[in-house]
Amino acid sequence: MERREGLTLREKALEALETSTKMLQVALDLFTQGNQVEATRVRDEARKQRTISTLLMAEANSLEMNPNRGRSQPKHNINHGTNRTTGRLSHQY
User: Fold this and answer.
1) Residues of 40-58 as b/e, b for ≥16 C-beta within 10 angstroms?
2) How many CB atoms neighbour CB 60 within 10 A?
3) Which of 8, 56, 66, 86 sees the fewest Cβ atoms within 10 Å?
4) What pLDDT sits at residue 53?
5) What is the 3-state secondary structure (H, E, C) of 1-67?
6) At what angle do helices 2-32 and 36-65 cross, to 10 degrees?
7) Contact at 8 Å (CB) between 56 and 9?
8) What is the pLDDT along the chain (93 residues), one digit of tens a residue?
9) CA torsion, points 21, 25, 26, 31, in degrees to nearest 10?
10) pLDDT at res. 31
11) Which of helix, strand or coil describes residue 77?
12) In Å, how far are 6, 15, 25, 61, 81 from 34, measured between CA atoms?
């Protein structure tokens, strides 16, 4: 299940990266034509797509590196210490 989910995330990351690349080309064309305002707007949108791609790929890598972690589980499990009498965790996030 995690493997399939990871592949889906990677496909979405690749799509976002391709969209970003196309948008950057459009921004360059607009800039070359002298339309700096629109070129800046499109470039900023392309950057957002690139960020989305990076985050999706990081999530896919995380699933691959930690296959026991499902989407419903928290990403962070920080142990702040154990109870000295019971040996149980005192805090978990």
Assistant:
1) eebbebbeebbebbeebbe
2) 20
3) 86
4) 97
5) CHHHHHHHHHHHHHHHHHHHHHHHHHHHHHHHCCCHHHHHHHHHHHHHHHHHHHHHHHHHHHHHHCC
6) 160
7) yes
8) 567 887 899 999 999 999 999 999 999 999 999 999 999 999 999 999 999 999 999 999 998 888 776 555 545 443 444 444 555 444 443
9) 130
10) 97
11) coil
12) 42, 29, 14, 41, 60
For tokens 């990081």, what's the residue? Answer: 58
| Identity of residue 71 | R
Q: Would you mind telling me the total number of residues written for the chain in this entry?
A: 93
DSSP classification of residue 93: -
